[in-house]
């Protein structure tokens, strides 16, 4: 296919190079929406297992699990995206991802409704993230929009799903006027 | 440029040299205390000699020269030719320090000791060698080293006897220089000469001092000896029988003396050991998971269960071995402290003796480094604020020399390190006064004695009017506290006014594993470090009191202990929690303060492998880490210090209210869960 094109993206992301974004993505579902994660950042998939809750952390941190002797946090992505919470089913999967944060490797699990497939998305099928205008949802964590047949897949920059502060501390702001028992 | 081979030689030298110099310090200290112990001096001389050789081979001639001079000086001390004064030892210690700092700079890429300072040091050591006027002339001579003992035993076994021959020359005579050699020659003709005073290497001194002594083994009898040695210049000649101390000929390699380790050992990269211990940790986890699952599946098939029991035992033994590989004796820290005390005490004009107990007790390597600061600080406190000056001690009827005792012992799966002194003790009034002045404590607060004592751990608190170079800035105790906390340990402070102070640091032997009490709140499990558990109680309703419907207290014997509902603190779903009146209370202790944690049930006591939770922790946290439980799930380890801190203000309120509110005593229904904790140090 002819990759040379005259198409100029309306708003160039500083690092939004379509050719660079092309590649393999692990796609999954949250409700009826589809998302994709760069395959290189995906370490493994595990079925839903007992998650140990850690008190006083962000709502979207479900807790921690034992991954072959290492303890990693599990993020509830529905919660993070402010979607209605849902009961886990036997389709629910934890995608274990790993990426670099401040020079160290951060491993964490992401709770998703259903895992779909590994999709190869060519550069042509990638569009820059939509700009909803100033003051609206921050779409920093979206690398771009992938298209496959008639499906629309939001390609996530997993390194940005959590804010820097959240990654550093994984804590929520202490609630004021909380009294101890 | 150095070649690969040279680099290896250099690093081998550096590695060994560090150990040797450390040993030197403690050997010198021992030598200072007992200059007449042949075993002690033997070790010292051997170390100096080895160091000299290595330094020379590695290409550092100045270092070698300095240690050669030290060797000579030590020899002179040993034979009584030089009196063991503080000045002499100060010089030796200073020499060791210089060697150490040179080594450090070599490590950083620098070179050998510079010629000038080296020659200056050599000169001063030489000076000390020849300087003193040993009027007693080695009153404790002869002191037999290994070699001399063997020689002596040899000659007696061949039928000879040991005699001390003492020759005094007429004071007016002018003796030729060679008189020493002549005498020696004559003695050799009579038998075997074991040792002389002055030593052979300094035979010229015979002409100057006009006296000579020799320990000989000979078959002749005293009369014959006297006849053979007679000379007109001799004023007095004495021959006395000598009985050798029945001492073992060779001090065995496991003799109890501070020395370079003589066990067989090899050097291994720490990384390799860490990796191995990590893998063993995972093996333990999986072994118990597999074992647990299989046991249920297999039912009563005794053979398989038998095999699993075996497997379990082997895995645990392996884990033990792995942990112990990383352990080192606390001796290193303790001996550094001895040296430190010596230096500071002399500086301050105090006389202090450091007593070491249990220095062979072992602790995880990573903890050793973290512990040196707190121990250092506590020891400095004892020297600075604890032990009184000699005069004052005498006035009080105490021994002139103060004692600081450093002890270490294992207690179950903990190690208890003690730093105690027999000095002033902590002045409660002063502490309280300073605390009030600094604003930590309000005037109306009533504190127990223990609580006042533990105020010293607040940063910014100091009862020293002047800030000395060493301590008094009020930061130290706080650092001690936070370091011990970070090591998941506990501090117990006791002090008798006028008698002394004792600080005990209770620490887990290893940071990788913790002894924990697994408790249940609702359907969630938490781990309480057993190190902090004081007792477990199943209280009756009449032991519980509430304050304004919010704060709860538990009466245990005569104490009122604040109560926390662990379930609510950890935000466990209310509906799942047991009725509070039916729970169990785990009483924990932290820095002298007690706290009761109300839980639904105690599941078990087990050793768990600690795993980092990484960045995941709540705010405020109350969780200090994670652990993999036997069923493979993650358990949260509670942070005792943060739980206790959340009570700080609450307690004051409770105490004020409680002092007028509770009634007469009732009985406790106590359920002691067997084996939950190790015996607390007294």
Structure description:
- The complex is a heterodimer of chains A (181) and B (682).
- Chain A has a 6-stranded mixed beta sheet with strand order 8-1-2-11-10-9. Chain A has a 5-stranded mixed beta sheet with strand order 3-6-7-5-4.
- The longest helix of chain A is centred in the last third of the chain and has 6 residues, at 164-169.
- Chain A contains 4 helices and 11 strands.
- By secondary structure, chain A is mainly β.
- In chain A, 10% of the residues lie in helices and 41% in strands.
- In chain A, 28% of the residues are buried.
- Chain A has helices spanning 18-21, 77-80, 158-161, 164-169, and strands spanning 23-30, 33-38, 42-47, 61-67, 70-76, 93-101, 104-112, 114-121, 126-127, 142-148, 151-156.
- Chain B is of the alpha+beta class and 682 residues long.
- In chain B, a hairpin with a 3-residue loop joins strand 15 and strand 16.
- Chain B has a 6-stranded mixed beta sheet with strand order 14-18-19-17-16-15. Chain B has a 5-stranded mixed beta sheet with strand order 6-8-9-11-10. Chain B has a 5-stranded mixed barrel with strand order 12-13-22-21-20.
- The interface between A and B is medium-sized, with 30 and 37 residues.
Structural descriptors:
heterodimer; A: 181 residues; mainly beta; five-stranded mixed beta sheet; disordered C terminus; B: 682 residues; alpha+beta; 20 helices; 22 strands; 43% helix; 22% strand
Strand numbers in spatial order across the main sheet of chain A: 8-1-2-11-10-9
| Backbone structural class of chain B | alpha+beta
Number of helices of chain B: 20
Strand order of the largest sheet of chain B: 14-18-19-17-16-15
The counted number of beta strands of chain B is 22
Quaternary organisation of the protein chains: heterodimer
Looking at the structure, what is the overall shape of chain A? globular
Number of alpha- plus pi-helical segments of chain A: 4
- Class by alpha and beta content of chain A: mainly beta
Largest sheet of chain A: 6 strands, mixed
Nearest-integer average pLDDT of chain A = 77
What fraction of the residues of chain B are assigned to beta strands by DSSP?
Answer: 15-25%
What separation lies between the terminal Cα atoms of chain A? 67 Å
Low-confidence stretches of chain A: 1-15, 171-181
